[in-house]
Amino acid sequence: MTSVTEEKPNPLTCLSADWVPFAQKLATALEKLEEHQFLILPVKRSRRYIQFSAQGAFGMRVETTSNSYLNKKEQLNEQQISFLIDVGWQAPTNTPNDSTPEKDPDGSPNYFVSFPAPISFTEVANLTVRTFAEVLCVPHPGRLQYFAFDKEAGNFELPELGLKLENQKLKPVKEKDIPQQLLGAIRETTGITVNPIQARKALEEFSSWRSTEILEIGDGFITLKIDDITTRFHCADTKRLQGIYTSGRVPLSKNNTPLVLIANYNVLIIPCADEGAILSNHVPINSNVVYFEDGAALFSPTENGAWHLFSIG
After folding, report:
1. How far is CA 135 from CA 2, 11, 145, in A?
2. Which of 38, 131, 230, 304 is 20 to 30 Å from 145 at the Cα level?
């Protein structure tokens, strides 16, 4: 277990006064989290985030993004890393490939803190605010959004945070029934956005991925060639898809076309390197989707790039 040190880095010269009441709101919201419930606070239009995992009698695990998941423009510098350690974060214990729950149950590929029970939620909230404001240089809590979900019951709301959330609820499900229940939910929202739970399941079941070829990207639809069969799918996010597909940073398939993959739950996946970087042939797959926009999962970061996610139907 890790305790938060009293040593403090030098704060920024200008901090919004709204961080103080936000810390109080966050402490109240965190206290409501039950075991197996999660809260993620991503910075808008960024890969930086802080996430909270309620662990019942074992307390709460809190993580913030490491350089393993950040592109070149957002990489933490030496001073920021030093500040993180000074205010109480533990350094990543290994790479995303090696620091998995199975291989490294007490560690993380991110910066992390384990708060034992009974939890001081004020302490957790203060650490979070200091990290956003003083280390990650987020000027105002309004630059944050949130996503909260229960491992069994799906998404839920925490309006007391005062942050933006677009409702994308799933019906309550048991873990063993998630694939079947998701198929029903996908039929209702197919082609619109990828729900974060839908994304997680698609990424976890990577052994079922199939290579496909994009023949056409139209206005609200795409045409794919799957096993020599041509099929048109509805897709509401074709503008983003077109930009990634034609970026020149998508690895090539065996057919010398940009690599495109079909996953379970009607999820289309396109790997894309960061600008100036190259994806290796063994790029790790991380099922933790850490970038959200209005409640939708857009991509899962990996080394030197990301797995970009699209809903089709």
Report:
1. 19, 8, 18
2. 304
